[in-house]
Amino acid sequence: MSATQFFNEMTDFSGETRPHYEKFSDWLQTTPPQRLADKREAADALFHRGGITFAVYGEAEGTERLIPFDVIPRIIPAKEWVDMAAGLRQRVKALNAFIHDIYHDQEILKAGRIPPEQVLNNAQYRPEMQGVDVPGNIYAAIAGIDVVRAGAGEYYVLEDNLRVPSGVSYMIEDRKMMMRLFPELFAKYRVAPVEHYPDLLLDTLRAVSQKGVTDPTVVVLTPGAYNSAYFEHAFLAQQMGVELVEGRDLFVDGGHVYMRTTQGPQKVDVIYRRVDDDFLDPLAFRKDSMLGVPGLLDVYRDGNVTLANAIGTGVADDKSIYPYVPDMVDFYLGEKPLLNNVPTYMLRKKDDLAYTLDNLADLVVKEVHGAGGYGMLVGPASTKEQIEDFRKRIVAAPEKYIAQPTLALSACPTFVERGIAPRHIDLRPFVLSGGKEVRFVPGGLTRVALKEGSLVVNSSQGGGTKDTWVLES
């Protein structure tokens, strides 16, 4: 395989259709391109009518976009999914064990497996959580793990999202759209369902309620209608049959959290929060926050309400901590990682910094606290001026960056303006931890970089989504 080749999900390196795509390939060859174009237009109209949009920060206030939807699915064979699922379970168990440990005995730091300053000086580490017990030691009840395929087809974890991972509503809506537009395809394949995700989510949230609560009241806490993921907040609340609330709808009294209702105050037991740590409680964090609930942290620390995800989970999904996840798997589970990390250079290290500065044109460099595709350099796709500008930023604060090789991400056929062409993709499965088991629906959200040659799949950077089909047999 040459350096310029990449793994194609539908065809092998000789151009032959992979077995799990054969029926779809036959269908595609007999389907006129105009029908695909008409169906894509119909999907856009239906998504817009349903309010399935996202806001883009930095643009005019109120600007909303459709996330481009591609009508060609990404198909994963059953055996591949079984192997990936085992790796996801293992990884999330280790991450939850790590978060519990650093807020309690800090054994992994004492053992020298992770430099203490990497954790204790991390902007996402919350000293307020030290010694706080959470139900079942589950800190990240909902995790979005970004998985990519590279090389000859190996899967790698690119990123762990443990704070307020988003995108699951698009996974569900993409499936509904495909079933509506192309019902004949679902007669050809046994595709594992994803529509029951809200039921699993509600079960998970109820399972992490405080001990002794038999019929927990669950709410979804949103920053409000101007948040980029507001559609998802409202969608999940509606699908679970629980209230969507803003900070002003909740208040603290007598050591508990209550929701204002037309029938009077109602005690809240579990808050599925889609609000960042800094804005949750103006008495404890940002004093100028209008999004949180004054006094919430005290109620949480006293064990009278559950927050999912827990305060302080961000320290485990920070990009400066990511290189140590294999150590976590070994330390807490005594196992070898089933899903590998992408090789990563930590620029706070002298040798890693020197190598990176010498090879910026070939690497991807990311801010350790960055998200959404912002604050990163994709060397091969950058100009000399952009590279030199980024070099200055790295030299000024190397500890704020990591670097990784530019992966030849796998590609999937995608219906673009000029027809069907390969575009690079990733996958975000949503992993739910609650009670005794780790659960998820098969698949996740496949994101696709619609610009030719682009490796950035984020919706904020022009990426789109695909339906993800995990085959049942």
Automatic annotation (TrEMBL):
Q: In which domain of life is the source organism classified?
A: Bacteria
InterPro entries named in the record: ATP-dep_Glu-Cys_Ligase-2 (IPR051680), CP_ATPgrasp_2 (IPR025841), UCP005522 (IPR016450)
Q: Which Pfam families match?
A: CP_ATPgrasp_2
Q: Where is the Circularly permuted ATP-grasp type domain?
A: 73-449
Specify the protein name: Circularly permuted type 2 ATP-grasp protein
What taxonomic lineage is listed for the species of origin? Bacteria, Pseudomonadati, Pseudomonadota, Betaproteobacteria, Rhodocyclales
